Amino acid sequence: MAENKPNYSANNIQALEGLEAVRKRPGMYIGTTDSKGLHHLVWEVVDNSIDEHLAGHCTQIDVIIHENNSITVKDDGRGIPVGMHEKLQKSALEVVMTVLHAGGKFDKDTYKVSGGLHGVGVSCVNALSTYLKAEVHREGKYYTQEYSEGKPTSQVVEQGSSEIHGTYITFQPDEKIFDTLVYRYETLAARLRELSYLNKGLKLTLTDEREKVDGAFKSEDFYSEGGLKEFVKFLDETRTPLIEEPIYVVGKEENVEVEVALQYNTSYSENIYSFVNNINTREGGTHVSGFKRAVNREFTKYGNDNGLFSKLKFSISGEDFREGLTAIVSVKVPEPQFKGQTKGELGNSEVTGIVSRAVGEALKNYLEENPKKAKVIVDKVILAATARHAARKAREMVQRKNVLTGTGLPGKLSDCSSKDPVLSEIFLVEGDSAGGTAKQGRDRNFQAILPLRGKILNVEKALEHKIYENEEIKNMFTALGVSIEEKEGERSLNTEKLRYHKIVIMCDADVDGSHISTLILTFFFRYMRPLIEQGYVYIAQPPLYQVRKGKNFVYCWNDEERQSAIDQYTGGREDVNIKVQRYKGLGEMNADQLWETTMNPEERKLRQVTIEDFLEADRVFSMLMGDEVPPRRAFIEANAKYANIDI
After folding, report:
1. Res 628 pLDDT > 90
2. Is CATH 3.40.50.2300 correct for 20-222?
C-alpha cells in the first residue's frame, strides 16, 4: 500500500552557517531564553574581561545598564586584536565576534587560565542581539565595528588615535529571542560582587541609567583586597562566628592554583561554595572532594591524637566536621574538564589530591598553632555528632511508624485519587479553616490538601532532631513521600517516592501569611532543596481584591489591576456605585471563589520557586531567619519602601 510520506533527501539537511545555529536553537548555547539566559549574555562578555585580568592585563571592568536595557561592558585590558587573520582573511575582531569558539583563550601562551573556555563567548551574544558595537582601544588607536544578529553591518573602522587601551562591548538583546529584556540590577550586582572577591585587586562597577539616586545614576563599586577571606566574612555576616578570622589556604601544584577560606559559625547548616576559574560549580566536583577529604582527615587526626573524641559512644561522620562551616573553595585550572555544558561539576581527577594536600597542610599547621581555637571547633563537631545521632533516631522513628501504619499518610491529609505523581499536586494550606475551604473547592481527582496549623518551626534556629519532632514538618515529610538517607557519611534527599510533582504553598495574602510562606520555604531550602531545584515547588497567588459593580465583578491581583477595574466600571464618573473587597485571608473566599481564582489550573496564577543565585539565597535565609538582628534590621529598613502592608 502506497503511503504519502514526505521526501527525505540531501535537500532536507540544513547546514546552518556562521551563527545561524545559535539563533535557531538558543537554548543549546545559553541554557534558556528567560531572565536567566538574558543575564547570561552579560556574563559571557564579562568573562572575556575577567580572562584579561587573570592574564595580568586588566584592573577595571565597568558594566552599564542603559535606559533601553541595552548593556555596555568596558575593560582596560589589551583590546581585541584587529589585524588580519591569515587563515580566514578577515579582521581578528570580526573573527572573535562572529565565529563560535574563536579567541585567544584557546592559545595557552595567551591565557594560562580562562573562565570562559567552555562557554559560547561573545560571538553568541552577538548572534542573539539586534545590535552590537565593538570598540577597541589598542596600540594607540581606536577601532569600531557594528553587527546585527551576528552579522557585521560595517567593516572594522579606524576612528583615530587613543591614549587608553581596552575593549568596550555594547549590545541590545533580541526581543524575538528572549521572554524578557529587563535586566535586574540585583542579579548583576550579586555576580559582580562575587567576582570582586574571587579576583582581589580587580575593581568592578555597575551603573544603572534607568534609575537615579540623589540626582545621579544608581551605581555601585565592587572591590576586595582580602579576596576569599572577605568573601567568607560577607557570607557569614548574618551568623555568629566561632573564630574571629577565617582560616586561609593558598597553594599551587602542577600549575593548579588553590585558594580556600573557611570559617565556623554557630549555625546548623553546611555552606561550601566552589569555583573553577571563577565559574560557580554548583554541583561541586573533584576540588570539593579534595577539600572535604582534608577537613575530615585533619580534624579526625587532631581529635584522636588529643583524646577529644574518647568519650563519644558513636563514630564521628564527615558531615559533623562541616556543620556550621562556611567555606569557599576556588581553583584555577589550565585545562578544566567540566561535566555537562552548565559547568556544574569539575571532573579533573588530579585536582582532588592537589586540593587535599594544600588544605590538609594548612589545617594541620593551624590546629597545632591555635589549640584554644581548635578546641572550640572540635567541641562544635562533637555537638554536631551528638545532634546528628539524635536526629537519626528521630527520623527512624518517623519512618518506622510509617511502615507499621501502612501508608503512613497523616490524618489531616485529604489525598487525591490519582496515583501518578506527574499529574498530582498538593496544597500546603495555612490553617484548618482555609484547609476546609480548599478541600471543598478542589478537584479531588488530582489535588490533595494538607492543612498546616499556624507557623511551623523555624528550622534555621533549631537542632535537627527537634525538626523531626515537629508535627507539621513530620506531616509534610510523610505526605510527600520523601525521606532523608545516609550513605558513606553523606546525607541526601530520596525523591524516588515523591507523590506530587506540584507542591503549592497557599497562605493568606497578609503579613502572617508571608511569614508562614517564608518559614516553609526555609524548611524546603535547608532540608528539601532538590524539590526546589527540580522545579516542584510553587507559591499560590490568591487575588488581593474583588471589584464589583452590581452583578458584575472582576478579581485583581495588585493595586494597578484594581484601579484599572475601577476605572473600567466607573468610566471616570464619581456617582457610580463600586464595591471593592480586600481579601486578607483565604477563609474570606468561599470554595467556588478559591477554586476559580487560586486552584483552577486554567485560571490560577502560580509562581514557581527557583534558586537563581544560591549564595545570595543562603545569605538571605540566614539573615531573615537566623539569630543576628542587626543585618535583618538593615535589610528591612532598606526594603521597607517596597512593602505594601495592610494596617
Report:
1. no
2. no
Rg of the Cα atoms in the chain: 28
Q: Does 430 participate in catalysis according to the annotation?
A: yes
Residue of 512, 533, 588, 627 marked active site: 512
Contact present, 61 and 74 (Cβ < 8 Å): yes
Give the confidence band of 111 by pLDDT, cuts at 50, 70, 90.
low
- The per-residue pLDDT for range 227-268, each reduced to its tens digit, is 999 999 999 988 889 988 999 999 999 999 999 999 999 988
Q: Quickly list H helices, 146-216.
A: 185-198
Q: Coil, strand or helix: which one is 356?
A: helix
Decide: 182 and 69 in contact? Cβ < 8 Å.
yes
pLDDT bracket for residue 289 (50, 70, 90)? very high
30-65 per-position pLDDT tens digit: 888 999 899 999 999 999 999 899 889 999 999 999
Which of the residues 430, 460, 464, 472 is marked catalytic?
430
DSSP state of 14: -
Distance between CA atoms of residues 343 and 44, nearest Å: 13
510 has catalytic annotation: yes
Q: What is the pLDDT at residue 259?
A: 96
Query: CA nearest 621: which of 601, 635, 641?
Result: 635
Strand 483-487 relative to strand 447-452, pairing: unpaired
- Determine the Cα–Cα distance for residues 300 and 308; give it in Å rounded to an integer: 10
Give SS3 for 141: strand
Running DSSP on this structure, what letter comes out for residue 598? I
76 is catalytic: no
Rounded to an integer, what distance in angstroms lies between the CA atom of residue 157 and that of residue 215? 36
Q: Which entry of 52, 460, 464, 508 is annotated as an active-site residue?
A: 508
Q: How far apart are CA 493 and CA 568, in angstroms?
A: 51
Domain ranges in the chain with CATH number 3.30.565.10:
20-222
The topology under which CATH files domain 228-386 is Ribosomal Protein S5; domain 2 (3.30.230)
Q: What was the pLDDT predicted at 451?
A: 94
| Average pLDDT estimate for 310-320 | 84
Straight-line distance from the first to the last Cα atom of the chain, in angstroms, rounded to the nearest whole number: 76
